[in-house]
Each structure stands twice: as C-alpha cells, then as structure tokens.
Design a protein that fits this description.
6-stranded mixed β-sheet; alpha+beta
C-alpha cells in the first residue's frame, strides 16, 4: 500500500529549508509545504535528533558553499543527501514516501533529477 504523503528532500536557500510535504496523489511538480529547515528541524514527523543534526549540517553546507561556486562538489553533496533520505525513509516507514530532488543550482540538476527512496 502506497503512503498517502510524499516527503521531498531538496536543498534550497533562505532559512535552510530541506523537506516538503504533499499528498502522494499530487502529481504536479510542486514540492508541497515546507516541513523542515535548519532552525526548526522536521515539524510534521518525529525523527531522531541525530538525523535532524545531520540534515542541518547538510543544508548548512549548501547555503554556505553552493551558490555561484563552480567548484562545489555536487556529486558528494547528492550522495550525502540520498544517504540522509534513506535514513529518513527508515525512520518514517510507511507514514510517507520519500523523494530526493536535486536543486536547481546544480548545473546538472536535470540529469537524474529525482530519486525515489525505497
């Protein structure tokens, strides 16, 4: 049975947002409402403090180093994001599907842009 909700993990600028929630039936490109950022952690799902800390370090790295930086290590950034997304899926279980999406700032964001986490 497919979960009713989808959590999208995608780095963005502002206040360190990294997770959005929407109904799984919503097939639009919209990521949903923001449910996690650097300051608050994840608000709609209870996850471990260590995972929140690890997501905070990951999004902070993006906000500090990614913008207009041709040397930003996108490959390792995405590998870490996918690892964190897998840990998130383990913690939320059947409560939500998890989707990792590369941010627009990655010059190669359209290549394998989305990764479903099972």
């Amino acid at each position: 049975m497919k979960p009713d909700k989808t959590i999208t993990i995608m780095a963005d600028f502002g206040f360190g947002p990294y997770a959005w929630l929407k109904d799984a039936s919503d097939e639009s490109g919209y990521v949903g409402i923001n449910i996690a950022n650097l300051k608050t952690g994840m608000t709609d799902f209870k996850i471990s403090k260590q995972l929140e800390v690890d997501f905070a370090m990951w999004i902070d790295r993006f906000e500090r180093d990614a913008l207009d930086n041709p040397e930003f290590p996108w490959s390792s950034f995405h590998e870490e994001g996918i690892r964190l997304s897998r840990r998130l899926k383990e913690e939320v279980g059947d409560a939500a599907s998890v989707l990792y999406v590369k941010p627009f700032e990655d010059p190669q964001h359209q290549t394998d842009e989305k990764t479903w986490i099972y």
